[in-house]
Design brief:
Elements lengths: L5 H11 L7 H21 L3 H10 L8 E2 L7 E2 L1 H13 L18 H8 L8 H19 L14 H17 L4 H12 L14 H20 L38 H4 L12 H19 L8 E7 L14 H4 L3 H11 L9 H4 L2 H7 L2 E4 L13 E7 L4 E6 L12 H13 L4 H12 L9 H6 L7
Parallel strand pairs: 3-4
Antiparallel strand pairs: 1-2, 3-5, 5-6
InterPro entries: MmgE/PrpD_sf (IPR036148), MmgE/PrpD_sf_1 (IPR042183), MmgE/PrpD_sf_2 (IPR042188), MmgE_PrpD (IPR005656), MmgE_PrpD_C (IPR045337), MmgE_PrpD_N (IPR045336)
GO molecular function, one term: aconitate decarboxylase activity
GO biological process, one term: defense response
């Protein structure tokens, strides 16, 4: 019997996976991911980058229409609903992060919800959970084709590479495509993959997620129409291998009987407490701990008496931004997030407003920040640490180190805190009925008859938005 090629094995697996393969652990974790993604997407629907993308997308028309999260009166063609909702999810860098490094949910859930609203088959909550997990699984397996992918990225933004493939796989599953059509969906999607990391810390970065959601959905729909790509796209260095320097692919198999081993069971997700790049969570927690030590020792201390702040962080050029001038730069600045934490004893959604960024006191503190990159501090979200040391004019020194922040996969966010985060985010846009409805539907997703009911709750705004 001939061994299947890598791409062929993926097409067969995407087609073969069914709801009996979902485990309680995977269902539980993926429901947490869904709820968090909806929440950050809703609060993200208030951002400037989302509104620009929405205005652009409203010029496109089709008979099929899908919901725009947080907008009671607006619908869009499904690919453009996936596009703008994906942008909303990543517009504040508030969405989940996995290891190896990517934002897995934002590329998949917007595509699936946009598609589900248009399908005559009316997919169930269990159908949605299966398709979602197929999209997450494909991303996890593709990232393990390279050791390079395990580190903080240097060249490509990972969701633009693996996210579009996950969206294509998830959409193919919800469309019930054949194994051959699943292969071609992946091949078509691969030609829309890849976005340079140079656009991190700009308004274009959220488009990486929006494009991944949209282009993956379109790839599956084009494959359904008979469009073909290279059926060995995952097998060859000139295919998906172009995105990694050390590409080493392996097959994806689904046992005919017995359990399927999901990546999500072995590797949990990190959920963010602040709307910023994941690395900022380490430096914020360390800065808060260092400030607490200072306050416990020197009562009524004036922060203007700080002489120097030293940050010991892993090397990563795109999150080393000494003097940010925009919210997107601030979300990618170790210096800004440490200084905000020291100045305000917290970092919140409002910390990234223009008024907060331009405070004289903050700029003064930023001028005193020095960054060091110790050799033992690896650029990996699974191994990195951050240390913050405060030195005063009086010659005193206060230091604290964070090895895993609260919300990291090693210190998971409690269900109560995850729901609280969702409620705060969603309440910025939805009425209480919408917020509570989404919590209930997602919490019982495996028993929901039609998953498209999510769209009706996502439109229950607190005002005419």
């Amino acid at each position: 019997m001939l061994r299947k090629g890598i791409t062929e094995s993926f097409g067969a697996a995407i087609h073969a996976l069914n709801t009996t393969k979902l485990t309680d652990g995977v269902i539980s974790r993926s429901k947490r991911m869904m709820l968090d993604t909806l929440g950050v997407g809703l609060i993200g629907s208030r951002t400037a980058v989302f509104n620009k993308a929405l205005t652009y997308s409203q010029s496109f028309k089709s008979d099929e229409r899908s919901s725009v999260w947080g907008k009671s009166q607006i619908t869009l063609p499904p690919p453009y609903a996936a596009f703008v909702n994906g942008i909303a999810v990543h517009s504040m860098d508030f969405d989940d992060t996995w290891h190896p490094a990517t934002h897995p949910s934002g590329a998949v859930l917007p595509a699936l919800l946009a598609l589900a609203e248009t399908l005559p088959s009316r997919p169930s909550g269990l159908d949605l959970l299966l398709a979602f997990n197929v999209g997450i699984e494909v991303q996890g397996r593709l990232m393990r084709f390279s050791r390079e992918a395990f580190n903080i990225p240097e060249r490509f933004h990972p969701p633009s590479v693996v996210g579009v493939m996950g969206s294509a796989a998830a959409s193919a599953k919800l469309l019930a495509l054949s194994p051959a059509e699943c292969i071609h969906a992946l091949a078509i999607a691969a030609s829309s993959a890849g976005a340079p990391l140079a656009n991190a810390a700009t308004q274009t970065k959220p488009l990486h997620i929006g494009n991944a959601a949209r282009k993956g959905l379109e790839a599956a729909q084009l494959a359904q129409m008979g469009l073909e790509g290279n059926p060995a796209i995952l097998d060859i260095p000139s295919g998906f291998g172009v995105y990694y320097k050390d590409y080493s692919p392996s097959a994806m198999t689904v046992p005919a009987s017995g359990d399927f081993k999901w990546m999500l069971e072995d590797q949990d997700i990190a959920f963010k407490r602040i709307p910023a790049h994941l690395g900022m969570h380490w430096v914020v927690d360390a800065a808060l701990a260092a400030r607490a030590k200072l306050e416990n020792t020197a009562r009524n201390f004036d922060l203007r008496q700080i002489r120097r702040v030293t940050l010991r962080v892993p090397p990563s050029k795109y999150v080393d931004c000494p003097l940010p001038s925009t919210e997107h730069q601030a979300r990618h600045s170790f210096q800004f997030n440490a200084s905000s934490a020291l100045l305000d004893n917290k970092v919140t959604v409002s910390s990234f407003s223009e008024a907060q960024i331009n405070r004289p006191a903050l700029k003064e503190l930023l001028s005193k920040v020095k960054v060091e990159t110790p050799k033992d501090n690896q650029p990996s979200f699974d191994k990195m640490y951050c240390e913050v040391e405060i030195e005063t004019d009086q010659g005193q020194s206060y230091a604290a180190r964070c090895d895993a922040f609260y919300g990291h996969w090693r210190k998971p966010l409690s269900q109560e805190d995850l729901v609280d985060k969702f409620s705060v985010n969603a309440s910025s846009v939805l009425c209480s009925e919408g917020v509570e409805g989404l919590i209930d539907v997602v919490g019982n997703m495996e028993r929901v008859r039609e998953c498209s009911i999510l769209g009706s709750y996502l439109r229950l705004t607190s005002s005419q938005q």
